[in-house]
Amino acid sequence: MFMGEYQHSVDEKGRLIVPARFREELGERFVITRGLDNCLFVYPLQEWAMLGQKLKALSFTKSDARAFMRFFFSGAVECEVDRQGRILIPNNLREHARLKRDVVVIGVSTRVEIWSQEVWQEYSNGANLSFESIAEKIADIDI
User: What average pLDDT does range 33-60 have in this prediction?
Assistant: First the structure.
């Protein structure tokens, strides 16, 4: 399970060091794609395959389903970690997530998310105000 928050930076070539705690669980190869909320989603290959099966079940006759699948899969790329623990994030994905230099890498249960530090701070500040109401709407468990 992925959890935690790590501050890192993207170098001038678009490379990012993947936190050591995440590298082991992600494996040698994994998938990175456009995420929601202007971040990137990173999946271990096994999790990516399971997600792909779920998305294949969506009705292709519905325009929203087609649009989401195009958005999600067209941005996907398989990555490998180099000897220094870095991945190369393609330019189109860096643009999507507005990644410049400072980034935040977070664990979110079955996936890792990569955020621009600025976007993450904006999101976190806004979300903090409503976590209680969100929990009331979605949580059927005691936390």
Answer: 94
